[in-house]
Amino acid sequence: LRQKEPGLHRPYSTPLYPYLPATAALLAVGCFIAMLISNPSIGGIFVGIVLSSVLVFRALGFHKRGLSR
To answer: Mean pLDDT for each consecutive 10-residue tract of the chain (69 residues)?
Structure first.
């Protein structure tokens, strides 16, 4: 919708943008690093699940479909 109607009024804006999303991303990375340090086997399983999900997503072509169905 942002590409089709770039000038459309959008009443919602993210609070404290870009600081709040950046802080959330840094905290998520910190939690992931803590998980890898405290339990490397679970971290490895998590990385394997994420990588296999990305491969399936790409192989099935979902990235080309976009949001419209």
So the answer is: 77 88 96 93 93 91 67
